[in-house]
Each structure stands twice: as structure tokens, then as C-alpha cells.
């Protein structure tokens, strides 16, 4: 089985000049890979280059075809500043600022404030308003009910009732005066619907009423 070059991870052929064994550790390389890397690629080998990153290759890596590479980050270089003829100084490298941490959003006062206590069971949690003055005592009489005075209706004059029945009884005006609106409307309709041909009937009815009626619709005696 041909060995594997730890630099390019390919097999090393049997051609003359293609294989080169490291003088320090004996690890086989391609001659071109050994020259391109500037020495052995095995980390810690005495023939490995000192100014580049080394490659650590173990027996397990060689059998499993895996390579672990350790990379050394380059050191920051200083920036030269010219201060005039014959004088040169260097500016120290400026470190990069650390990423700012996100500022947490301010919480609302309602979420940070204390939670109000629940109201006591069986009530609303609000004290009743104070009473002004002494309250009602047990057994004390309540306020007296208000009594409104309604004056009695004024009695109608019999003379006006008789005169209206004589002169305007055909249209029921005397009944409207006394409060008998239904009878007055009937007498008025008899006269109007018959074009006053039925007015004598309504007038005779009115003469009978002024003779027998002596009270108004409320039962009050004519004066």
C-alpha cells in the first residue's frame, strides 16, 4: 500500500524523485509538497518550518485519512509613523471594541408594579360613604306623605246651558259645554251629514235635554 502524503492527502507513487522522507521524523512526503511547505508538515518535527502553522499528524490520522491542523493567529502589526529624518516610531495596534450587549426593553409600569390584593370575599372592597348627620333610629316615624290639594271643578251655569241648547242645539254645542262630548258629536254629525236637513231632529233632541238635564258630565249640579 502506498503511503499518504500528509500535506496534500494523496498517495505517493513509486516514481523516482517523487517521494521524499523527512530527515527529522522519517514521514514520507511528495518532494514537491515538502519543498512547497518549506519542510516537514508534522507538528513538533525539527525539520518543520518555524514561521508557518504546523500540521499534527498521528498514527490514527494516518490510518483514518484525517489531519488535524493547528493554526496560530498572526500577531497584530504596529503601524510605523515618521517623525522626521532619522526618527521613526510605531503606533500600537488599536484593539477592536467588544460587541455591545443588547439593551433589554424597558418593562411597562403595569408589569413591574405590585399586584393589588384581591377584594375580600362577600363584598366589593369599597367602604361605604360616611353618613351626614344622625341616621334613622329604630321605631322613629317616617316622613309624612305629601298631600296635593286638587280644587273641585267649577259648576256650569244652567242659564248658559239652556241658551246654547235653544240657539245652537242643532250642532250639539250645549252638550260640549256640559262635558257630554259623545252626544254633542252625534248631534253635530246628524246636521252636517244631512246638509242640515236633519238639523230639526238634533234641535228637538236639544230642547228635551235642556228640560231634563240639570248636571254636567262630572255630576256637578248646575248653578
- What structural class do the secondary elements suggest? alpha+beta
Q: Which parts are unreliable, with pLDDT below 50 for 5 consecutive residues or more?
A: 78-82
First-last Cα distance: 153 Å
Order of helices and strands: EEHEHEEEHHHHH
Radius of gyration, CA atoms, in whole angstroms: 65 Å
Mean pLDDT rating: 74
Structural shape? rod-shaped
Question: Can you walk through the features of this model?
Answer:
The longest helix has 14 residues, at 199-212. The protein is α+β, with helices and mostly antiparallel strands and 223 residues long. It has helices at residues 31-37, 59-64, 109-112, 158-168, 173-178, 181-193, 199-212; strands spanning 19-21, 28-30, 54-56, 68-70, 79-84, 87-91. Helix content is 27%, strand content 10%. The protein has seven helices and six strands. Among the domains are: 19-70, no CATH class; 158-212, no CATH class. α4 runs antiparallel to α7 (199-212) and α6 runs antiparallel to α7 (199-212). β5 (79-84) and β6 form a beta hairpin. The model is unreliable at 78-82 (pLDDT under 50).
Amino acid at each position: 500500500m502506498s503511503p499518504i502524503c500528509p500535506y496534500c492527502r494523496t498517495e505517493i507513487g513509486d516514481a523516482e524523485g517523487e517521494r521524499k522522507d523527512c530527515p527529522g521524523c522519517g514521514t514520507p512526503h511528495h518532494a514537491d509538497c515538502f519543498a512547497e511547505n518549506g519542510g516537514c508538515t508534522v507538528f513538533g518535527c525539527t525539520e518543520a518550518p518555524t514561521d508557518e502553522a504546523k500540521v499534527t499528524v498521528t498514527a490514527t490520522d494516518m490510518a483514518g485519512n484525517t489531519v488535524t491542523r493547528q493554526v496560530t493567529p498572526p500577531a497584530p502589526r504596529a503601524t510605523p509613523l515618521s517623525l522626521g529624518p532619522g526618527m521613526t516610531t510605531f503606533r500600537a495596534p488599536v484593539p477592536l471594541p467588544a460587541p455591545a450587549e443588547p439593551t433589554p426593553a424597558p418593562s411597562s409600569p403595569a408589569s413591574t408594579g405590585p399586584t393589588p390584593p384581591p377584594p375580600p370575599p362577600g363584598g366589593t372592597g369599597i367602604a361605604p360613604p360616611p353618613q351626614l348627620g344622625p341616621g334613622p333610629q329604630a321605631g322613629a316615624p317616617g316622613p309624612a306623605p305629601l298631600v296635593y290639594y286638587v280644587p273641585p271643578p267649577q259648576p256650569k251655569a244652567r242659564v248658559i246651558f239652556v241658551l246654547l241648547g235653544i240657539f245652537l242645539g242643532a250642532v250639539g254645542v250645549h252638550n260640549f259645554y256640559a262635558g257630554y262630548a259623545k252626544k254633542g258629536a252625534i248631534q253635530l254629525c246628524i246636521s252636517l251629514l244631512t246638509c242640515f236637513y236633519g238639523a230639526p231632529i238634533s234641535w228637538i233632541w236639544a230642547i228635551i235635554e235642556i228640560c231634563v238635564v240639570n248636571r254636567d258630565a262630572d255630576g256637578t249640579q248646575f248653578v
